[in-house]
Amino acid sequence: MERLLQGKVCIITGAAQGIGKAIVERFAGDGAVVYAFDRQVGVMEQWVEACAERFGTRVIPVCCDITNSAEVKSALMSIHKQEGRIDVLVNNAGVVFNRKMGMIVRDETELMFRVNVIAVLELVQLAARFMARNKTGSIVNIASVTAVLGSPGQVAYSATKGAVISLTKSAAKELASQGIRVNAVAPGIVETERFTELYETTGNKIDQRIGKIALGRLGSPEDVANACAFLASERASYISGQILGVDGCASI
After folding, report:
1. How many Å is the Cα radius of gyration of the chain?
2. Is the Cβ–Cβ distance between 131 and 137 less than 8 Å?
3. Helix axes 18-29 and 41-55, enclosed angle (nearest 10)
4. pLDDT beyond 80 at 251
5. How far apart are CA 244 and CA 179, in angstroms?
6. Within a 10 A sphere around the Cβ of 65, how many other Cβ atoms?
7. Mean pLDDT of all residues in the chain?
8. Residue 40, CA distances (Å) to 19, 106, 138 in order
9. Is 198 exposed, middle or buried (0-12, 13-18, 19+ CB in 10 A)?
10. Which strands, in side-by-side order, build the sheet including 59-63?
11. What are the residue boundaries of the Ketoreductase domain, all occurrences included (predicted)?
């Protein structure tokens, strides 16, 4: 079976659980050397080791706060020194606070912009410097269907993901001459731990949300991971500046 990312050095942020964990496992299965960034490294230790052993590759947990510029720069420099290259960056780490108009909290909004936008911009910029040395690289940002379609109760969050989409399109044009592709995946409703907790605590009906998805089911973390693997691979070598919806044809 073909391994789409054989030998590629890949960085994935927000890797401890949910979508990030699925991306790590998919990339390892495709033969990548994976650096899994998260502040919760302890959560990753057991499954990271098992993942590496299962797929015969290296999966290295990295404790990193992506909002700390110095920490991020040090981590990327260390990886480049160790591996001699950085081939793929997946900006998955994110924060979400769902608030309706009139209830939006400034501190929460500022945190979302720091994590979802500013940290992503800084990581793209840093990773691109290393990728440019080899005239090749792929960056995949995680946006959201809410940024494309809008969503009641997610005005501030949607704004951060809309910024990610704009960032992706502009970075793709700017970095193309250096052989670096930049794309984004825009997931719909994905059944992660966070989603389950939200619907258990709010009393909202999952069935109502599924009813707005044409394919009739919630997305899985693996659905998003598969899209990321494709965009990161050479199969997508002529694809850049695109926003790939992974939403089951949702209407929100």
Report:
1. 17
2. yes
3. 20
4. no
5. 20
6. 16
7. 93
8. 15, 26, 25
9. middle
10. 59-63, 33-38, 9-13, 88-91, 137-142, 180-187, 243-246
11. 8-188
Structural contact between residues 61 and 41, judged by C-beta atoms closer than 8 angstroms: yes
For residues 110 and 33, the answer to whether their CB atoms sit within 8 Å is: no
pLDDT of residue 2: 77
Q: Is 87 helix (H, G, I), strand (E, B) or coil?
A: coil
Asked if residues 44 and 68 have their Cβ atoms less than 8 Å apart, the reply is no
Measured between its terminal Cα atoms, the distance across the chain in Å is 37
CA–CA separation, 109 and 8 (whole Å): 35
DSSP letter (8 states) at residue 219: B
Predicted confidence (pLDDT) at residue 43 exceeds the cutoff of 90: no
Distance CA 210, CA 248 (A): 10
How open is the CA angle 216-217-222, to the nearest 5 degrees? 140
Q: 7: which DSSP letter?
A: T
* Per-residue pLDDT at 195: 67
Which CATH code, of 3.10.20.310, 3.60.15.10, 3.40.50.620, 3.40.50.720, is assigned to 9-185+223-244? 3.40.50.720
| Active-site residue flag, 157 | yes
Per-residue confidence (pLDDT) for residue 212, from 0 to 100: 86
Lowest mean pLDDT among 41-55, 112-126, 134-148: 41-55
181-219 pLDDT per residue, tens: 999 999 999 988 766 666 555 555 677 778 889 999 999
